[in-house]
Amino acid sequence: MYGVGVDMWAVGCILAELLLRIPFLAGDSDLDQLTKIFEALGTPTDETWPGMSSLPDFVSFKIFPGTPLEHIFSAAGDDLLELLQGLFTFNPSTRTTATQALKMKYFSNRPWTHTGSTAPQTKLLS
């Protein structure tokens, strides 16, 4: 069953890859992909995703505790971690929507200002 929740999961993956600068959760097959996801984010349960075990293609997996997002994305602030947590919610019906994401602190906090001497220098292309 496809819904917009899949797109929001994809947004989380894209954001993660921009932050890490490497592929995030890259698997070689469907089962390997799920294993990578569960190793990183923890294995979902019927408590975190009610009805999950009743899905048509449900397969039981080893229970992985997952890694706290702040350990995976060590340079991320609390507002960004909150966004990632919402995007990586397993249950698509409770996953952060685009409207909810845009209202999160990550998008309303102003970036820190840089003085001219500490701002990164870029070369202008002609």
UniProtKB/TrEMBL annotation:
Gene3D superfamilies: Transferase(Phosphotransferase) domain 1. The keyword Cell membrane does not apply. It is an enzyme of class 2 (transferase). The keyword Ribonucleoprotein does not apply. One of its GO terms (biological process) is positive regulation of transcription by RNA polymerase II. Pfam families: Pkinase. Residues 1-16 form the signal peptide. It comes from the Eukaryota. Its EC number is 2.7.11.23. One of its GO terms (cellular component) is transcription factor TFIIK complex. SUPFAM superfamilies: Protein kinase-like (PK-like) (SSF56112). Keywords: ATP-binding, Kinase, Nucleotide-binding, Serine/threonine-protein kinase, Signal, Transferase. Residues 1-107 form the Protein kinase domain. GO terms for molecular function: ATP binding; cyclin-dependent protein serine/threonine kinase activity; RNA polymerase II CTD heptapeptide repeat kinase activity. This is [RNA-polymerase]-subunit kinase.
